[in-house]
Amino acid sequence: MPHALLLLAAGALADRYDRRKLLVFGQSVMMVFAAVLAVAAHLGLASPWVVIAIAFLEGAAWASVTPAWQALVPALVPRDELPAAIALNSAQFNVARLLGPMLAGVLLSAASAAVVFDFNVASFIGIVLVLVLVTLPSAELQRKPAVHSDGVKPALQWALRERGPRQLIFGLFAFALFAAPVQGLLPAMADSELHVGAHGYGILLSCLGGGAITGALTLAKLPRGYPRHHLIPLSMLAFSLCALVYGSSRSPLLSGASLAVGGVFWVWSLASSSTAMQLLVPEELRGRAMSVLALATTGPLPLGHLIGGAVAHAFGIRTGVLASAACLTVFATWSVFARQPAIDAAPERAVSRGLRGSVWEALTAASHRAQEIEPGVPPGNAEPITGQAKP
Fold first, then answer.
1. Which of 141-145, 183-187, 238-242, 363-367 has the lowest mean pLDDT?
2. How many CB atoms lie within 10 A of CB 304?
3. What is the DSSP letter of 185?
4. Could you tell me the CA-to-CA distances from 187 to 48, 135, 201, 261 in Å, in that order?
5. How far is Cα 182 from Cα 199, in angstroms, rounded to an integer?
6. Contact partners, residue 135, CB within 8 Å, separation at least 6
């Protein structure tokens, strides 16, 4: 809920104020909230409502700095290394998400929940120190944040009017909505359908996380010239097919394998979308535009979980997973044929290619490169969108 309420306003803050100071302040506030939770746990005062209140405040603090995190990345990384940097960021995020609960489980069994919260507080110290000590390029230091009377409105107008950003945001919204039940119903699938219990659930979750890490590490190895307006919808389609296999499987081994492969395509689609937006957005709108992207990525999750849970409650857990995966498959299939070259660059007039040509180009990206090539690629490597031979 804090993400849905605060992300757009936080994007305006990221464009208006010093981004590093915002991050230091936000992480410091989060450390204070974490310390309050640790003290409450030690004193036996961590009632459900106290935990809920602190979780909401922590989420609000995190939402307030998310656009600043994303807007600061291009200032730290050369433009031609941005895709690899975002892939690396996705890798460390998924490693942390995989190892964090494992380490917390060890501490929880060896000590107590309060000790876990103590380690959480200590972890913030390193984050704040890095933010204080990191050296920013002169371009970021000389950036003159402007006061925007229209707030987030210009970013919304840009994101909805421009074909490339509009397609990215619409695709991420649908992907987050339909993919949410696949992971959200994983505990119920492990317990009631696959009958592997809590231990098996941990293994299945590790398969998904391991696939995500593999996807992040391999994304930077893909051919640099392969257009993202092909990669993103094809990755979404591949993930949806893996989700269908997982949802219909009665074998824990097959379910784990499909989740592992699906995790690869899951990261490919999300990280490629973030890279495409970072390369498209004007610098003066970067913070607010990235907040729109973040909202499209995280905003639909609660609704997706709610719908998936309602379907699972009414028709069965497996049906809830398969229904969401089927909806995602339909959307991803449409996205493959409705791909938007403006995700990579401004397109020329569209030329009809027929069903057979569309299928072939969707799978191979043949004769359908964006007009502008990425920085670092030698001139002359771009192919015309119309499929005509280069002179």
1. 363-367
2. 23
3. T
4. 22, 43, 6, 19
5. 19
6. none
